[in-house]
């Protein structure tokens, strides 16, 4: 990742918009960021880290906390960062949750956090949105690591610079897993374990199922299968023979039972039909009466139509008589209506004179309508002109009053400006005094803090020296004890050899056959474990002494560094008062400064008020002149409107000057004229219609009278003809015939009953003949006895069949278990072969023998390469004294499993010790070397991760001049690889030795920055 362009708005100490264009560096790959304390040097790193990950470089402040205290409520806090990864270019915009001024109205509103990632061209144009949601996750995929790893290998913040060096194995493993993507090796181990466990589980399942199959087959092993199968086959054959015999007996009994059932059914049916024949014979007389009734009803049905015709003639005659009476009444009413219409038409002639007068008046009033409209408009115009005059005079008076008030206020403001003219110079002097006192207060605070730290460091140094002396005494005593026990042990071994010497036999040590002074056995004989125990105690005491020696040296170095810083600060700022005294002076100066600044601000406000008052006075003078002109114009227009109104009043009568009144009179005349003309036409139409209706009703009444006479004659003739036909049919009268016609509808029901009776008689007689023929001479059977014999045969056959089925099912299940056993044997062999390969691979990857799994082995190898790359720089900067190596002390089993602890080998002492025992400057050099080595190895292994940039915040102040030269040479050597290195430091020597510098300037209204080149 290479930074290109950083745009900060209201971020940290930068009140406005601050742009850091890294393209200005050109070929300068090493540059310095310097400036006063609190000016915003680290804020530049915070802005880049916040833009990428939403958190600051130290991860102690959120984006919302980075809003500038100098920014106005209208200025929103945001960061825009352009960077390159390989040949691709990106821009990320991010703003925190914040409260800013509302665009409309007053007050503040809460703006939510926003972030967006864009892919651009090299010039920063042709944007393409890469992510609007989950922007941090998209950045992590682009860069190849998360915020924590970014702060440990690219951006090394103040206070966290040593974290990668001093991190534990677990934390370092997480860092390297992320950077080198070694999770795939752990995934390989998980897959191998899953396959290993799956095969073991499958094999155990196969074994258990095999045991179950053997138990189900009732055998101990596969050798007994053939004998067991023959037993099953013999048992099945015996049961089948018994079942075949029982089934033959059952079929014979079943045939006899079916024949007895059929014969018994014939006997029962013949008895039933004989009973039914007797019942039908008893009903013969009843059905003969029904046949006679049907014949009579058929005759009455034939005469039903003549009777209905006679009824229709009677009904038509009655209806015609009613219609004739109604037609006569309507004809009389039509004659009366005609007479009334003629009388109304004659009475309308009395209104004709008034009708003609109304027509003449309507013509005269119509001619006055235009003048009445003009008169109304003229009256409205006159009223509006009078109103305009009143309003114009009001505005004129108001403008004159405001002009006078504005003159008085302006004179008063001018007097105030003159009184505050000399306060600006006094305010600047008070501000300069406050700044000087505030700076002195900060320096006094730093000096007090350094003195306290130096006092604590001295106390810690003395404490370490005390423990060092005790550890040295203990180490010396343990060493002497060890040497004594070892000498006794060697002497005891010589005595053991001497006890076994024989005269004339050579000594196994020197070969001499003479033994003049054999070794004497001591009183207490130490064993080898005693020697080893004392040796371990001596080595542990020596290690403890060395540890306290390193600790004491580190405490001494820290105390001397703090003492030197405190002395340098006191030489520049001698102690001439307490911190509280300087605090009180600064507060008094601040109060005085704020009072004068407020007076200056009041003066500026008065000046602005004077300028605004002069502008308002000129505006009111212009408005007064315009109002006076408007009054004169309104008065002239009102006079003209009055003249026009007087001219129109001379031509119009007073009653018709209102257009509405004139229109109402015209409407009344039009209504009266229309009513007369409408009534005249209505009465004329009524007379014509009455004459026509009277003639029509008279003709209709005459027609109905003729129809009534005709129907009477036809009815008399029909009555005589019907009486003759009824007597001829055998009925006593027409009334008796009509009574029988009411029962004609019963004919179908009666005929159906007779037909059904005849069918029953024929059916019963036929069935009796069939049953007699079927029975013949056979005796009635004993069905119960035959059924009992069949039940016994079926029970015996069913029992044998069930036994046969049970044996067949058991034998089939036995065969299935036999096949399953064969399949399990083959499956077990296959699993055994597969397990040989998978088990060996899993044990190798999981490190069952070595204790180090595949991923940890790879991480250890990668760490070795990182340490080798780091040592190439560390040895040069430490003048061949120090080198980094993986810890070989595996007393902690967890450390043995991980194997990623780092220790420092000291060529001066020949011992390796933990990295946290290095002094401040030594720790800085080791951390810098490790960070550079890690960047080299990561970039070499991971094509997707580009570690082209590194920022280092502080740490150079702990180096002496010579070591500082070595460190700068190491950083300068990175130019050949194209890597950009930025350093934040207060060390003055760096400003002289580094050509490219980013200067951060601190002011009372926020900080600014600019590049400088020597």
Explain how this protein is built.
This protein has 1014 residues and is of the alpha+beta class. The protein has 23 helices and 17 strands. The chain has helices at 41-53, 135-143, 147-153, 163-166, 169-180, 183-217, 225-282, 284-302, 304-347, 352-366, 369-419, 423-499, 528-572, 579-651, 659-728, 734-741, 747-775, 783-846, 854-877, 893-898, 920-941, 961-972, 988-993, and strands at residues 2-11, 14-21, 30-34, 78-85, 88-95, 98-101, 108-111, 114-120, 128-131, 155-156, 882-886, 902-906, 911-914, 949-953, 980-984, 996-1003, 1006-1013. It has a six-stranded antiparallel β-sheet, with helices on one face. The protein has a six-stranded mixed β-sheet with strand order 10-14-15-3-16-17. A hairpin with a 2-residue loop joins strand 4 (78-85) and strand 5 (88-95). Helix 7 runs antiparallel to helix 18 (783-846) and helix 8 (284-302) runs antiparallel to helix 17. It is flat. Residues 890-897 have low confidence and may be disordered.
């Amino acid at each position: 990742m290479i930074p290109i362009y950083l745009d900060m708005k209201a971020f940290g100490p930068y009140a406005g918009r601050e742009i850091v264009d890294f393209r200005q560096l050109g070929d300068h790959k090493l540059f310095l960021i310097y400036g006063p304390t609190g000016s915003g040097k680290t804020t530049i790193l915070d802005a880049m880290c916040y833009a990428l990950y939403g958190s600051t470089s130290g991860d102690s402040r959120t984006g919302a906390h980075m809003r500038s205290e100098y920014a106005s409520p209208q200025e929103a806090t945001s960061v825009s960062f352009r960077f390159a990864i390989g040949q691709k270019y990106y821009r990320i915009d991010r703003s925190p949750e914040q409260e800013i001024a509302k665009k409309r109205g007053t007050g503040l509103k809460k703006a939510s956090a926003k972030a967006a990632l864009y892919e651009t061209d090299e010039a920063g144009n042709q944007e393409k949105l890469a992510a609007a949601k989950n922007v941090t996750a998209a950045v992590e995929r682009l860069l190849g690591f998360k915020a924590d790893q970014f702060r440990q290998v690219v951006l090394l913040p103040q206070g966290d610079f040593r974290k990668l060096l001093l991190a534990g194995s677990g934390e370092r493993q997480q860092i390297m897993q992320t950077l080198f993507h070694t999770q795939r090796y752990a995934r390989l181990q998980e897959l191998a374990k899953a396959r290993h466990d799956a095969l073991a589980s499958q094999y155990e399942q196969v074994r258990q199922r095999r045991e179950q199959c053997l138990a189900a087959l009732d055998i101990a092993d596969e050798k007994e299968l053939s004998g067991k199968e023959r037993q099953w086959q013999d048992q099945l054959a015996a049961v089948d023979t018994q079942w075949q015999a029982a089934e033959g007996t059952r079929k014979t009994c079943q045939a006899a039972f079916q024949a007895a059932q059929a014969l018994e059914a014939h006997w029962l049916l013949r008895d039933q039909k004989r009973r039914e024949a007797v019942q039908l014979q008893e009903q013969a007389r009843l059905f003969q009466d029904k046949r006679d009734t049907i014949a009579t009803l058929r005759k009455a049905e034939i005469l039903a139509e003549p009777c209905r015709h006679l009824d229709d003639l009677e009904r038509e005659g009655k209806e015609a008589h009613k219609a004739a009476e109604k037609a006569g009444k309507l004809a009389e009413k039509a004659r009366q209506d005609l007479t009334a219409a003629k009388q109304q038409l004659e009475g309308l002639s009395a209104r004709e004179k008034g009708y003609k007068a109304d027509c003449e008046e309507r013509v005269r009033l119509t001619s006055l309508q235009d003048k009445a409209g003009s008169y109304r408009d003229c009256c409205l115009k006159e009223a509006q002109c009078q109103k305009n005059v009143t309003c114009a005079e009001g505005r004129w008076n108001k403008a004159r009053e405001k002009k006078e008030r504005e003159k008085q206020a302006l004179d008063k403001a001018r007097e105030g400006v003159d009184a505050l003219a000399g306060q600006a110079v006094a305010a600047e002097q008070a501000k300069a005094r406050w700044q000087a006192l505030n700076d002195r207060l900060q320096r006094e605070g730093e000096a007090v803090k350094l003195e306290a730290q130096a006092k604590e460091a001295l106390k810690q140094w003395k404490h370490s020296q005390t423990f060092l002396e005790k550890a040295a005494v203990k180490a010396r005593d343990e060493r002497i004890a060890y040497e004594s026990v070892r000498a006794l042990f060697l002497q005891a071994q010589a005595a053991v050899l001497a006890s076994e010497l024989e005269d004339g036999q050579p000594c196994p040590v020197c070969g001499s056959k003479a033994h003049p002074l054999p070794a004497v056995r001591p009183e207490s004989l130490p064993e080898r474990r005693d020697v080893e125990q004392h040796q371990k105690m001596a080595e542990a005491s020596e290690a403890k002494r060395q540890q306290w020696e390193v600790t004491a040296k580190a405490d001494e170095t820290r105390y001397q560094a703090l003492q030197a810083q405190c002395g340098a600060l006191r030489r520049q700022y001698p102690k001439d008062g307490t911190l509280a005294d300087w605090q009180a002076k600064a507060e008094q100066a601040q109060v005085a400064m704020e009072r004068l600044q407020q007076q200056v601000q009041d003066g500026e406000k008065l000046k602005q008020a004077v300028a605004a008052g002069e502008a308002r006075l000129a505006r009111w003078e212009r408005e007064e002149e315009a109002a006076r002109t408007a009054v004169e114009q309104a008065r002239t227009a009102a006079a003209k409107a009055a003249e026009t109104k007087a001219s129109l009043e001379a031509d119009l009568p007073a009653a018709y000057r209102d257009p509405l009144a004139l229109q109402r009179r015209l409407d009344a005349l039009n209504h009266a004229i229309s009513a007369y003309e409408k009534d005249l036409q209505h009465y004329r139409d009524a007379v014509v219609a009455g004459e026509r209706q009277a003639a029509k009703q008279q003709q209709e009444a005459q027609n109905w009278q003729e129809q009534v006479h005709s129907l009477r004659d036809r009815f008399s003739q029909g009555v005589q003809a019907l009486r003759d036909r009824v007597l001829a049919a055998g009925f006593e009268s027409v009334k008796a015939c009509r009574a029988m016609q009411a029962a004609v509808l019963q004919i179908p029901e009666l005929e159906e009953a007779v037909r059904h009776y005849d069918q029953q008689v024929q059916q019963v007689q036929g069935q009796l003949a069939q049953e007699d023929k079927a029975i013949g001479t056979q005796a009635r059977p004993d069905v119960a006895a035959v059924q009992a014999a069949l039940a016994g045969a079926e029970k015996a056959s069913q029992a044998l069949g069930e036994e046969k089925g049970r044996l067949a099912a058991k034998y089939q299940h036995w065969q299935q278990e036999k096949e399953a056993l064969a399949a399990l044997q083959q499956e077990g062999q296959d699993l055994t072969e597969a397990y040989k390969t998978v088990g060996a691979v899993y044990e190798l990857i999981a490190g069952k023998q070595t204790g180090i799994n595949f991923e940890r082995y790879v991480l250890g190898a990668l760490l070795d390469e990182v340490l080798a790359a780091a040592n190439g720089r560390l040895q040069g900067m430490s003048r061949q004294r120090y080198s980094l190596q993986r810890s070989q002390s595996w007393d902690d089993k967890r450390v043995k499993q991980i194997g990623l602890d780092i220790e420092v080998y000291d060529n001066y002492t020949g011992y390796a010790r933990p990295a946290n025992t290095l002094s401040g400057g030594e720790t800085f050099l080791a951390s810098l070397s490790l960070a550079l080595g890690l960047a080299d190895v990561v970039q070499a292994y991971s094509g997707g991760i580009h570690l082209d940039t590194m920022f280092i915040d502080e740490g150079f102040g702990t180096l002496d001049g010579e070591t500082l030269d070595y460190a700068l040479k190491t950083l300068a050597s990175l130019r050949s690889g194209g890597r950009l290195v930025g350093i934040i430091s207060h060390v003055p020597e760096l400003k002289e030795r580094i050509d490219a510098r980013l200067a951060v300037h601190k002011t009372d209204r926020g900080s600014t920055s600019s590049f400088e080149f020597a």
